[in-house]
């Protein structure tokens, strides 16, 4: 990837048929819809893609399918998280060989009793850098339960060749982003936030250059970044205030199911099935989600109709 990646890089949901099998044609439609939403890149196989519910064979198939179908129209980021360094490195190498612009990975974790030392975490990311040879986004999220203090992240950015992007989703993300940017300086190429952009405005004020949301409403969130980058603070605030009720409903009530429900309603995919032990969205939550989606005339809500 020659250019620095910034802007909105949403996560693609993985569609399933009602029997739980992967919907390959639906995956292609999801990617096409996201490109029509004006995204700057697409992330696949992330937590909001239900990556933890996919077999190794399904992951490999989806990696190839997504990269071949997008075919360079936008950069594709492939999530490769795994506890084993060798497995993570192999996934990174495969993604790079298939044309991924970047890989994203969480630190290795497997419950509170199986957290590597800071040096082990450093070596884990270094192994992927050597194997993949493309930019790495470090996903710093509470889900892992692993502490990634700013000094460790800065050391990784300075000493591991391809570690240069960071997705910060921890509490008080803006303060951590500001500290990371200040201490890491030119080594912090892409400071991003996540969590459906629920703290985006504060994170932009702190210096982040992009966000990784879901695929629910990227076309509505992107103007927040565009206006903020142009110095139009009042306009950025107005856009964020418009998006925030739906962001909050997704973040606090729906989770990864939100994009699937709206995409099914809009004919992008045929089913909003999530794999067990995840459960379907309640009708109460669905009704409010679709009401707010219609009020904002989301692209995904009518893309396939």
Automatic annotation (TrEMBL):
<dbReference type="InterPro" id="IPR013785">
    <property type="entry name" value="Aldolase_TIM"/>
</dbReference>
<dbReference type="InterPro" id="IPR002220">
    <property type="entry name" value="DapA-like"/>
</dbReference>
<dbReference type="Pfam" id="PF00701">
    <property type="entry name" value="DHDPS"/>
</dbReference>
<keyword id="KW-0456">Lyase</keyword>
<protein>
    <submittedName>
        <fullName>2-keto-3-deoxy-L-arabinonate dehydratase</fullName>
    </submittedName>
</protein>
<comment type="similarity">
    <text>Belongs to the DapA family.</text>
</comment>
